[in-house]
Amino acid sequence: MCYKWTLFLLQKGDTFEAFKKFYALISTYYKGTLRAACSDCRGEFLSKEFIQYIEEQGVHHQLTSPHTPQQNGVAERTNQTIDEAA
Question: What does the pLDDT read at residue 70?
Answer without folding.
Answer: 72
